[in-house]
Amino acid sequence: MDSRLHRKGIGFWLLTFGFWLLMQPANSQQLTANSQENWRDTLTAINKQIAQSPWSTDLHLRKANANLQLKQWQYAIDEYGLVLQHEEHNPAALFYRAYAYTHLRRFDLARNDLNDLLGIVPRHFEGRLSLAVVLQQMGRKQEALDELSQTVEQHPDSAVGYVARANLERQLKLDEAALYDWQRAEELSPLDPVYVINHVDLLLVLERRREARRVLDAAVSRGIPKSMFNDWYWKCKR
Predict the structure, then answer these.
(1) I need a surface site. Which of 34, 60, 192, 198 has the fewest CB within 10 A?
(2) Is the pLDDT of residue 187 over 50?
(3) Is the distance from CB of 229 to CB of 201 less than 8 angstroms?
(4) In sequence order, what DSSP letters do the residues of the chain get, joined into one string?
(5) CA gap 238, 234 in Å, rounded
(6) Is the pLDDT of residue 18 over 80?
(7) Is-contact 195 159, C-beta < 8 A?
(8) Under 8 Å CB-to-CB from 235, ≥6 apart: which residues?
């Protein structure tokens, strides 16, 4: 298995399904006409290689990846299923078949694949984070929170884990827990203004303006330009 190919695509899923949760800016994933044509050419070339070769997991994973890039979700699902017939514990096939399932809103099947993945690789960060996103789409927010808590426990040095949990905690009105997670995220990624803004926003919702001002001042002292927080400083004075 060429894991490098699929490792590159991890961010693609998180951008598509995770960043609504993480409150991060996402680049457009829409393919240009030229890019679509390039991927079609790639798919044609891979199909010729497959026709001339004995079984190659790498070739079929590459074919499935081309299907994903062209948004051919069912074709990708079928291709990953073929890989899993040969290697039932292939992590990349499980992860990306789940990704394709989510595009078809087949969240129960996505959850099954992610659970299988985590049975094989329990500390798979992207897999567990993606499972939490899928569970939220299914309306299972408490289960999602449990997954995010396990993510944080397994990866305590990841700011992303704390941010994901903070956003869900806020939805569940667990404000004190969310404040703690925003603080931890800032400690782990002290120059990320998005984390500061979300932390401050929650403090303002709770009408804790002085504390919000201290968070802003601390961020500026760490080197984030004060101009990035002009609106938030103004809100602290209201």
Answers:
(1) 34
(2) yes
(3) no
(4) --HHHHHHTHHHHIIIIIHHHHT------PPPHHHHHHHHHHHHHHHHHHHTSS--HHHHHHHHHHHHHTT-HHHHHHHHHHHHHH-TT-HHHHHHHHHHHHHTT-HHHHHHHHHHHHHH-TT-HHHHHHHHHHHHHTT-HHHHHHHHHHHHHH-TT-HHHHHHHHHHHHHTT-HHHHHHHHHHHHHHSTT-HHHHHHHHHHHHHTT-HHHHHHHHHHHHHTT--GGGGHHHHHHHH-
(5) 7
(6) no
(7) yes
(8) 204, 209, 212
Residue 90 — left, alpha, or beta (φ > 0 → left; ψ -120 to 50 → alpha)?
A: beta
pLDDT digits (tens, 9 = 90+) for 53-84: 888 899 999 999 999 999 999 999 999 999 99
Task: Tokens for 42, please give them.
Answer: 């790639």
Dump pLDDT digits (tens) for 123-142.
999 999 999 999 999 999 99
Tokens, residue 177:
């827990």
Residues in the chain: 238
Mean pLDDT of the chain: 87
